[in-house]
Design a protein that fits this description.
It is a single chain. The chain has about 230 residues and is mostly helical. The chain has a domain at about 60-215: Four Helix Bundle (Hemerythrin (Met), subunit A). About 60% of the residues lie in helices and about 5% in strands. The protein is built from six helices and two strands, in the order H-E-H-H-E-H-H-H. The longest helix has 30 residues, at about 30-60. It is elongated.
Length: about 230
């Protein structure tokens, strides 16, 4: 398997590099290609091991409740596995010049993803879970990141989905991930908001008016007499 060129192709004589920048084939050095494939494989393993360890750690806080739409989590898992497989296949099979800026952005997404997931899970505490779930004596959390976002944990998954395609420079994968995950996330947020509205009624309606799902809302309403 030939490797990836990290922008050094301009050092080659012109007669050996007839294609324009960004279009020439990578990997005239088989050893370099093997190293790069190995580094990417290590990255995949580390990211996924950390993700599994994270889920096991946060599971300690979980308090069981009534699960709504149990099919959603398996669908999300299948989607995540497909992202891994697609990015890896594109990295190994399509020769293109690796963009180090995109790789750096991918690593930044990974850091933001883990930090944001920790803050979100810690804020939810015993109410954290991988399902849409309502517990006995459930409280609507409106502190920490939930003061401005209804679903900061889901925002962390956006960065999660961007991480591997960016590091792999897997542009085809990135395109279908952005399109597909936008739909999946929209469906999950709508379903969860509906469950929360049925559980908390006006309290959730007021909360939703002052928060965005994934980005801070600019629609801030002043407190009413009933709230004071």
């Amino acid at each position: 398997m030939r490797g990836k060129s990290w922008g050094t192709e301009h050092l080659a004589p012109p007669h050996l590099n007839p294609l324009p920048d960004g279009e020439r084939k990578r990997g005239t050095d088989d050893n370099q290609g093997k190293r790069e494939n190995m580094y990417f494989f290590y990255f995949l393993v580390i990211i996924n091991v950390l993700t599994l360890a994270e889920m096991a750690y946060y599971r300690r806080w979980r308090k069981k409740g009534i699960v709504y739409y149990p099919w959603l989590f398996p669908v999300c898992i299948i989607f995540y596995v497909a992202v891994n497989a697609s990015a890896a296949a594109e990295f190994l099979m399509i020769e293109r010049v690796i963009n180090p800026v995109a790789v750096g952005l991918g690593f930044c997404c990974a850091v933001i993803r883990f930090a944001l997931k920790y803050v979100s899970a810690a804020g939810l505490g015993k109410y954290w879970g991988v399902h849409i779930e309502i517990r006995k004596d459930h409280e609507l959390i409106k502190s920490g990141p939930f003061k401005i976002l209804r679903h900061p944990g889901y925002l962390s998954t956006v960065f999660e989905m961007l991480t591997i395609p960016l590091v792999a420079n897997a542009w085809y994968t990135l395109a279908w991930v952005v399109a597909g995950y936008s739909v999946l996330l929209y469906v999950r947020i709508r379903l969860e908001d509906n469950v929360l509205q049925k559980e908390f009624g006006r309290e959730f309606d007021d909360y939703r008016k002052n928060t965005g799902a994934l980005l801070p809302s600019l629609r801030l309403t002043p407190p009413t007499c009933d709230d004071t």
